[in-house]
Amino acid sequence: MKVLKTYFEVFEILKDEFCNFNLPSEKVSIQEAVFRICAQDIIAEIDVPHFDKSTVDGYALRCEETFEANDENPAVFEIVGEVKTGKVPNFQIQKGQAARIFTGGCIPQNANAIVMIENTIEEDGKLYVFKPAKPGENILRKGEDIKKDSIVIKKYQKLEPAQIGVLAAIGKKEVEVFKKIRVGIVSTGDEIISQDEKLDSAKIYDVNSFTLFTSCYKEYALPKMYGIVKDDFEALKDLLSIALQENDIVLISGGSSVGTYDNTLKAIESLKDSKVLVDGVSIKPGKPTIIAKVGIKAVFGLPGHPVSCLFIFNFFVKKLMDIILHQQDTSRKVLAKMKTSIATSSGRTEFVFVKLHFGDEILAEPLYGKSGSINLLNNASGYIRVDATKTGIRSGDIVEVILI
């Protein structure tokens, strides 16, 4: 009797087998690097800012001369100049003097605070300050944001827009990132046809190739579709060999027949240096999932039903991609209250698709449908997990929804 793996056993297998997978890197412009994974520590070669600068529009002065200022007894200064943004001032601030300055302006020598315009009145070349200023007030010191020689971005850090901004601030035009994971996609089954063919008899259009292809793009992988293979062992073996040569991961989406599943398993086992890691998982949907390692590369035999196929991609293939790229769990989650009760009885961990309703509270409405129903995913906001030890979830229970 086949022993099914639990989903957390599968996670551990993926981690143990692929944690040392080495992706090559490439240099790209920083505007092309968004959402890519940094391939090395980035060290700042300059201070940011590289001069003391004002964070507000106001007046540069010596703060100790404002300590006794108030609404009835303002501190009075002679205005001796104006700091042009982008220019280094050619004057110093002496006792009793102040200078106009704008946000981003370079602090004149001897000034140690910037008073905001709202706390002053300027009249006939004089500045009246009605509120005390503190040392360093409204001044961003040299290197206060980023210190020269400090690590600003670490290896394996995802480059979000904020990180791209940091790279721009330290003068980087290019950055070394890991190449995208290459993913080959194969659909199998005698009943599967392409959208170019006429739909007749009991044939169905290929869905999984397209959902998997676009899911890879969402994960910033580089997918390639290899078309449809009928229930032919030799043809599948040959195409799988080609796909493995060209990709880091190969996804084989099976048809609905037992023969297709058997062919996928046999084709994987026939390859040199292949090792089947998982042959069935104790979850619903996705029980007939195959995971193998061929050399250093991964092969997934995914269920043929569209809902199960896409779920296993999000649950296991995405997990492998995170492992390869040294990322933490990148799933987006939200807490919600169950709108109605659900019952489970499969004896396996079940994942139930839900639709979220947003109002005074977030409600999760369970969606019911067979694993072949692609429109189920069209209506779903995410899914919840019901452990094998439970018989369901009651209305009003708080659940964690993994968004899709």
Automatic annotation (TrEMBL):
Where would I find the MoaB/Mog domain in this sequence? Answer: 184-323
Which terms does the UniProt entry file under GO BP?
Answer: Mo-molybdopterin cofactor biosynthetic process
Please give the InterPro entries that the UniProt record associates with this protein: MoaB/Mog-like_dom_sf, MoaB/Mog_dom, MoCF_biosynth_CS, MoeA-like, MoeA_C_domain_IV, MoeA_C_domain_IV_sf, MoeA_linker/N, MoeA_linker/N_sf
Q: Which Gene3D superfamilies match?
A: MoaB/Mog-like domain, MoeA, C-terminal, domain IV, Molybdopterin biosynthesis moea protein, domain 2, Molybdopterin biosynthesis moea protein, domain 3
A Gene Ontology molecular function term for this protein is: molybdopterin molybdotransferase activity
Task: Tell me the pathway.
Answer: Cofactor biosynthesis; molybdopterin biosynthesis
Q: Which cofactor does it need?
A: Mg(2+)
Q: What class of enzyme is it?
A: transferase
Claim: Magnesium is one of the keywords in the record: yes
Record field: catalytic activity? adenylyl-molybdopterin + molybdate = Mo-molybdopterin + AMP + H(+)
Q: Which GO terms describe its cellular component?
A: cytosol
Q: What is its EC number?
A: 2.10.1.1
Q: Which domain of life is it from?
A: Bacteria
Q: What Pfam family is a match for this entry?
A: MoeA_N
Q: Which UniProt keywords apply?
A: Magnesium, Metal-binding, Molybdenum, Molybdenum cofactor biosynthesis, Transferase
Spell out the PROSITE patterns in the cross-references. Answer: MOCF_BIOSYNTHESIS_2
Q: What family does the entry list?
A: Belongs to the MoeA family.
| Functional note | Catalyzes the insertion of molybdate into adenylated molybdopterin with the concomitant release of AMP. May be involved in the biosynthesis of molybdopterin.
| The protein's name in its UniProt record | Molybdopterin molybdenumtransferase
Organism from which the protein derives: Caldicellulosiruptor kronotskyensis (strain DSM 18902 / VKM B-2412 / 2002)
Phylogenetic placement of the source organism: Bacteria, Bacillati, Bacillota, Bacillota incertae sedis, Caldicellulosiruptorales
